Amino acid sequence: MDTASPPPALRLRGLRHAHGPRPVLDGIDLDLPAGHTVALVGPSGCGKTTLLHLCAGLLARQQGFIGQSFVRPAVMFQQPRLLPWMSTLDNIALGLKARGMGRAERQRQATRAALDLGLDAAALAHFPAELSGGMQSRAALARALVLAPDLLLMDEPFGALDVGLRGQLHQLLLARQATEGMAMLLITHDLMEAVRLADSVLVMAAEPGRIVARYTPPGVALARGDALVYRCTAGLLRQPPVRAAFGLPAVPAGGGEAATPC
Ligand SMILES: Nc1ncnc2c1ncn2[C@@H]1O[C@H](COP(=O)(O)OP(=O)(O)OP(=O)(O)O)[C@@H](O)[C@H]1O
């Protein structure tokens, strides 16, 4: 008899949430299995952060089902949220300290995680305020990855980064996922980032927040080249529900509206 437990997963069914009297999420269904990436993309205010906070257990569930069987979830917030009175290295090692790991070992692991993300020894000795925004984002990502999460919840993690740095961190994350098999839930405003990284792209519309399009980009994310990503993003952007979600005018007749994005 096979007694192995099923692989972990995040599963949402009919999730509804209101902030006060105002409905924010209306009937969200989502599946995120181990080793996969789901990108939630939608306009500002459609409820993406609320949804991520519910998945992370930072907000209490009101209505609907949340099944979450990952054992080492980690969250990367919209802002780096580094503690200003600690060195960058101590910030990155903070979660390991909370797990009771000794100072020498946690500094060793934090240093390695930071170097992997392109931070150098000088940056690690600095306070966060002495780092550029991009370096702070790398430190926040290192702080999450050093915990070896099996689920990484990310809220607009790369919003403040230039296109080159974004690309580097995308590749680092995907390589890490390929070796460690972590699941990723990524919130982004950026359709192209969603198409580049995700196994499944869920497009949300606002008022109330709901999923209006589901799209599976072709192939595996690590192998998607720029041309494919541009083409698929352009195709997705021609879909009427996606255009409506972002408040874009309808594509005029004969403007190349595609039955499928790619
Ligand atoms: N704690 C709160 N109390 C009241 N309203 C809130 C609260 N948090 C969020 N909201 C409202 O809920 C709606 C959804 O907010 P949320 O931050 O989840 O959206 P979002 O899609 O992540 O937006 P953005 O992309 O701008 O970060 C917004 O209208 C916001 O003003």
From TrEMBL:
What is a GO molecular function of this protein?
A: ATP hydrolysis activity
Pfam families documented for this protein = ABC_tran (PF00005)
Q: Which UniProt keywords apply?
A: ATP-binding, Cell membrane, Membrane, Nucleotide-binding, Transport
Q: Which InterPro entries match?
A: AAA+_ATPase, ABC_transporter-like_ATP-bd, ABC_transporter-like_CS, ABC_transporter_ATP-bind, P-loop_NTPase
The record, for Gene3D superfamilies, names:
P-loop containing nucleotide triphosphate hydrolases (3.40.50.300)
Tell whether ATP-binding is among the UniProt keywords: yes
Q: Specify the domain of life of the species encoding this protein.
A: Bacteria
Cite the ABC transporter domain residue spans from the record. 10-231
Tagged with keyword Transferase = no
To which protein family does this belong? Belongs to the ABC transporter superfamily.
Q: Indicate what this protein is called per its UniProt record.
A: ATP-binding cassette domain-containing protein
Lineage, top ranks? Bacteria, Pseudomonadati, Pseudomonadota, Betaproteobacteria, Burkholderiales
